[in-house]
Amino acid sequence: MRMVLTRSERRLLLLELLYPLVLLAMGVYGGLMQTLMRAGIVQRDPFLGPNYYQGLTLHGVFNAIVFTTFFAVAFGNALIPYALGKRLKLRWAWLSALLMVLGSLMAAAAIFAGRASVLYTFYPPLKAHPAFYLGLTLLVVGSWVAFFNWIPLYLGWRRENPDQKTPLAVVGMLATFIVWLIATSAVAVEILFLLLPWSLGWTQEVNVMLARTLFWFFGHPLVYFWLLPAYVMYYTMLPKLAGGKLYSDAAGRLVFLLFIVFSIPVGTHHQYMDPAIGANWKLLHAFFTFAVALPSLITAFSVAASLEYAGRLRGARGLFGWLWKQPYFSRKQWLFSYLIAGLVIFIFGGISGIINASYGMNAAVHNTSWVPGHFHMTVAGPVLLAFLGMSLYLLGQASGKEVRFTGLAVAAPWTWLVGVLLFSFAMSRGGLLGMPRRTNMGVTYLNPSSPFYREDWVLWADMAVVGGVIMTLAFVLYLISFLGTLMARPAAEPALVFPLAEAYHDEPVRALANFRPWIVAALILIVIAYTPVIWDVLRSTYENAPPYLPGSPLPVQPTGR
Amino acid sequence: MDRAERLTLGFSLGLLGLFFIAVVYASAGRNVGVPTCIVDREPFERDTLFERQPGVYELQMIARMWEFRPGEIRLPPGSTVDLYLTSLDVIHGFMIEDETASKAHMRLPALMAVAVPRYTGQNVNLMAVPGAVTYARVRFDRPGRYKIVCHEYCGDNHHFMNATILVQ
Question: Which of A161, A171, A180, A174 is nearest to A254 (CA)?
Answer without folding.
Answer: A171
